């Protein structure tokens, strides 16, 4: 077969990388979330320079794709200032919930890129995050297979 009929990416081991999907939601960020974006951009710039120096086409393509995503996230980032003594749950607040089973759990509502449920950081656009927004102490929200009461807002 003539090389004219072979895709340029054949034999490279990677093909065209799909773009990372940018969320349709507002990109609200905490100060820590903005720092995370900045650190990720710096890390990816370094990764791209290393890949280019090594003439690694696959690593270059991946770094360029990731940089396109994170640059868009940086451009669209809306820094939400910290609010002292909030009376209702807002973006950036920590919320303490008392669950029906007697357990107590603390979450902080953060941006999508900062979310890490294992560390108690949940996205403000998650179902629980949406349920919590606007709640006051004493309000109930659906939690796991039951209800939980907002015990504190920090």
Which structural class matches the secondary elements? alpha/beta
- What's the tally of helices? 3
Assembly state of the chains shown: single chain
Please identify, by name, the CATH architecture of the largest domain: Roll
- The name of the CATH topology of the largest domain is Chitinase A, domain 3
Q: If strands are numbered along the chain, what order do they take across the biggest sheet?
A: 5-4-3-7-6
Counted beta strands? 7
Q: Main beta sheet, described?
A: 5 strands, mixed
Give the mean pLDDT: 91
Query: Which percent range describes the beta-strand content?
Result: 15-25%
Number of domains: 2
Assigned CATH superfamily of the largest domain: Transcription elongation factor, GreA/GreB, C-terminal domain
Q: Measure the end-to-end span.
A: 67 Å
Helix and strand element order: EHHEEEEHEE
Low-confidence stretches: 1-12
Q: What general outline do the C-alpha atoms trace?
A: elongated
**Proportion of residues in helical segments:** 25-40%
Describe it:
The protein is of the alpha/beta class and 154 residues long. It contains 3 helices and 7 strands. Strands 5-4-3-7-6 form a 5-stranded mixed beta sheet. Strands 1-2 form a two-stranded parallel sheet. A hairpin with a 2-residue loop joins strand 6 (140-143) and strand 7 (146-153). The model is unreliable at 1-12 (pLDDT under 50).
């Amino acid at each position: 077969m003539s090389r004219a009929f072979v895709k340029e990416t054949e034999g490279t081991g990677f093909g065209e990388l799909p773009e990372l999907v940018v969320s349709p939601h507002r990109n609200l960020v905490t100060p820590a979330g903005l720092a995370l974006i900045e650190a990720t951009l710096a890390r990816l710039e370094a990764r791209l320079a290393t890949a280019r120096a090594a003439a690694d086409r696959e690593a270059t393509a991946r770094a360029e794709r990731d940089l396109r995503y994170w640059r868009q996230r940086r451009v669209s980032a809306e820094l939400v200032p910290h609010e002292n003594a909030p009376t209702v749950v807002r973006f950036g607040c920590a919320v303490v919930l008392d669950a029906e089973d007697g357990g107590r759990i603390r979450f902080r509502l953060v941006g999508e890129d900062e979310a890490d449920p294992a560390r108690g950081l949940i996205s403000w656009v998650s179902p629980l995050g949406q349920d919590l927004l606007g709640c006051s102490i004493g309000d109930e929200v659906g939690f796991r297979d039951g209800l939980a009461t907002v015990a504190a807002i920090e």
